[in-house]
Amino acid sequence: MHRPRLDKDIRPLSEFRANAATLVQQVQETKRPLVLTRRGHSAAVLIDVTEFERLVGEIEVLRDIRRGERQLENGEGIPHEEARARVMATLNR
Fold first, then answer.
1. CA torsion angle for 78, 80, 86, 90 (degrees, to 10)?
2. Which of 13, 32, 54, 67 is most exposed, with minimal Cβ within 10 Å?
3. Whole-prediction pTM value?
4. Beta strand spans in the chain (E)
5. Can you give the CATH number for the domain in which 40 is found?
């Protein structure tokens, strides 16, 4: 994800209400998130749908890695050859 530009990508919620279509288009074109503020404090972040899907996918992979690390820490792992054989058996169905 591109980092927000502080001079262009932080807007008050009132401005977003008045110019929603234009600001959504900006997010889609620049691929940068838009930080919305309320009373001078951050309130929400608007990001492009494709970027959101990418982030969710990345989070899922990281969670899977962490789950695997916990399983290994708890002695729940299996040898590589056994894991490979299971995967190959599944793929060859």
1. 130
2. 67
3. 0.70
4. 10-12, 34-38, 41-46
5. 3.40.1620
